[in-house]
Amino acid sequence: MQIRMQNADVLTQEQIQEFLKGSRSIEFTGQNRAERYGFVQRELVAQEYAAQGRKQRGAIRAYLSKVTGLSLPQMARLIRQYRQEGVVEAVAYRRRRFPTKYTSRDVTLLAEVDRAHGWLSGPATVHIFKREYEQFGKADHARLAEISVGHLYNLRHSQRYRKLAAKWEPTRPSAIVIGERRKPDPQGRPGFLRIDTVHQGDWEGAKGVYHINAVDAVTQWQVVGCVERISDQFVLPVLEAILHQFPFRIIGFHSDNGSEYVNYEVAKLLKNLLIEFTKSRANRTQDNALVEGKNGAIIRKHIGYGYIAAEHAERVQKFHTTHLNPYLNFHRPCGFATVSLDARGKRRRQYPREDYATPYEKLKSLSEAASYLKENMSFARLDQVALAMSDTESAKKMTAAKTALLRVVKTESPTPPQFH
């Protein structure tokens, strides 16, 4: 049976009852929603739906449902609309749209800061925006200073951000282990160093430079040096210069079992400075994990894996002292772990957002912090360095110096190496 819209609305009540008793298939020629709703409205008017009894209204509803192919609940909603408003029409869909808080300028600023600092974690990046706004008065950082870590990652995944931000491959951490065979116990005091060596590759049988990486276990204050060779002649002067760059007194010195540290000359130097000397235990890879993590997150990230000839060690050492070390300690936030035990007694390390701070901020936050400083050092003197420029300005300055350094190193090499 085929029923056309222009003829179906002239059926009587008796014809509707007979129609409902039939079981033959129905084909409705009006296919779009507007035509179906128009047919329903015309039929309700023609049948004087509001004036009918309960039984007749049920028959009309069943009839309209069968003819149009709409479900009974949907037909009930259309009839309710007809009785309340006098018409049957589709309601325009209005998608819920939340107001936009972060503008395209904010996304551009996020990409700029990420490039300068080398794509830090979300909490560390939020901490930088907060410092830029509150401490250095950058008004354009106001909105991003209040952003949540989760929404910061949303912006990083946006199409505009992906167009602005360069793509970097993840770095590979360098696994070098080192140390008297026991783990030091700082007890919340700064001055317990973890130290390690990072080799900058070989080129046709020639050894590249070596980086010496020293990190304080409590504040994560970090000093990086560079030597031409791993021998007493080169290591001892740079090692002494590294110890001098820490603003607090050094109490402990912990390394892996490498011969560049485990020797009589280094032991004599530390003994003269009244520094305790320990080294990593066998089968305890976590003893020196802090500095090994910094090897990948700092040295490999900023210097890379490419070969740097040994004759450039002095130039790299000057870059570390003048640019990299001040940036790391006064302008790059670090995460500080909160260790807890779960129900099974397993240690869990968590990094709350509020615990992110630069090493200098962490040092100042310690109880009786001034008592740990060296005799010729004060927080007033350190504040001048910390406030000389903003975090992002320091990162840009360090990146420019690094680019110039690597360009000179590549140009002056007999066979230019490939940097990654």
Q: Any overview of this molecule?
A:
The protein is α/β, with parallel strands linked by helices and 420 residues long. It has helices at 5-8, 13-21, 33-46, 54-68, 72-85, 104-117, 122-134, 149-156, 159-164, 232-245, 264-272, 289-303, 313-330, 359-365, 379-386, 391-412; strands spanning 2-3, 27-28, 192-199, 202-203, 206-207, 210-216, 222-227, 252-255, 276-279, 338-341, 347-350. It is built from 16 helices and 11 strands.
Would you list the SSEs in sequence order as H and E? EHHEHHHHHHHEEEEEHEHEHHEEHHH
Count of helical regions:
16
- Unreliable spans are 174-179
In whole angstroms, the N-to-C terminal distance is: 75 Å
Principal-axis shape equals elongated
Helical fraction: 40-55%
From the alpha carbons, calculate the radius of gyration and give it in angstroms: 36 Å
Give the integer mean of the pLDDT values: 85
Number of strands: 11
User: DSSP strand (E) fraction?
Assistant: 5-15%
Report strand order across the widest sheet: 7-6-3-8-9
The largest sheet is: 5 strands, mixed
Pairing-aware structural class of the strands and helices? alpha/beta
